[in-house]
Design the sequence.
């Protein structure tokens, strides 16, 4: 018997009010409350990639941005 994988829903941008498909993973960590190995992820469309990453970067939370 072979198991069939469940279809994966496309990621939706995490920006407020945006329903666009995400093209990027904005990976971050708040060092005051998260262990160093814990990574949180926001999904971002092309339009919101820079604003989401910038928001996290000025706070020192941004780890990296990866293409999905």
Sequence:
């Amino acid at each position: 018997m072979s198991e069939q994988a469940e279809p994966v829903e496309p990621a939706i941008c995490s920006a407020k009010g945006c329903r666009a498909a995400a093209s990027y993973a904005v990976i971050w960590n708040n060092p005051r409350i998260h262990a160093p190995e814990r990574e949180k992820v926001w999904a971002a469309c092309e339009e919101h990639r820079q604003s989401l990453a910038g928001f996290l970067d000025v706070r020192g939370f941004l780890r990296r941005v990866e293409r999905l």
